[in-house]
Amino acid sequence: MSQDQGGPGTSFEDRLKAARSKQGLDAPPTATPGDQEKPGGSLWGIGLRVGIELVSALVVAVAIGYGLDRIFHTTPILTVVFVPLGGAAGIINLWRMFAPKGS
Amino acid sequence: MAAEGSNSIDALGQFQLHPALGFIGESVNFTQANLMMIIASLGVLGLLWIGMKPRAMVPGRLQAAAELGYETILSMCLEQIGPEGRRFFPMVFTLFFFILFGNLLGVFPYFFTFTSHIAVTLALSLLVFILVTTVAIKEHGWHFFSYFVPQGIPMVLAPLLVVIEVISYLSRIISLSVRLFANMMAGHVMLEVFGAFIVMLGGLGLLGYLPAGLSLGLNTILIGFELLVAVLQAYVFAVLTCIYLHDAVHLH
Description:
The structure holds 2 protein chains of 2 kinds. Chain A is built from 3 helices and no strands. The longest helix of chain A has 30 residues, at 43-72. Chain A has a domain at 40-103. By secondary structure, chain A is an all-alpha fold. Chain A is elongated, with a radius of gyration of 23 Å. In chain B, 34% of the residues are buried. Helix content of chain B is 71%, strand content 0%. The chains are: A mainly alpha, B mainly alpha.
């Protein structure tokens, strides 16, 4: 974490401004929270994340479908309906993760 | 450890829970995972308490660590959530350091990694999920449910897309918990497997010394890798919490 050392060249005003914006006293000039999770750029990390996002959506969808089937006694139908929906949700998760900014 | 008397590698045995603290723990099912959670919490408290004791202008090592942790999480909250992030700072800070200490303590021999149990990570992610949903409903009321309707879609597609969005929203619980759990478990299984290799190959005699040495070297590298993963996963958990909180506060 580069602190506000600022170097000898920067003026006191600049450093004060940087410190204030960091402490949230001023409204930050550019609120860009869209910079989604990008900590480890390793291929392993990306692969694991893709797998988890896809599978977790599918797991939730199957759980919902199965549960509704148990409630309404329509055993295979709702599970079958929810599986493709879960796949689509997984793809949406991936799109959110890798989508270009501002789309 | 592994390979107890047999030739099979018991890679998952290390995750078994045992009662801790003698018969008292046995009678109330107090396991070593619970003990590690308490140790981790005390460790965080100790770091902050002892670290911030000198209140020096030029911080020492421990104080620098404490201040660095504080400032990192604070700037992360403010960057990811926006100016409202200040309110959630204590929560994110606690979460980050609890997971970080849990992960890091697990690297030491004879210590137990409580984050390698899905029960623990699922509880943490459910906590985050319930908090995020509560915040969103409190901030926006009924308007919150418009989050599930993507903007600018034909009304015909709405029922389909709303279901998909709800599934996508709910899948956060699973992805958040499984990510942490899988990373921690995979690392420890690998350590265990290569540790077992050392023992087994070492017993093989002269022929086995070279591969056993290679396994030992690999395990040394893996320990360093584990340290990286421990910090990274705690950070990812905290960042994702912040991103979800941002969604809850701002809706899109």
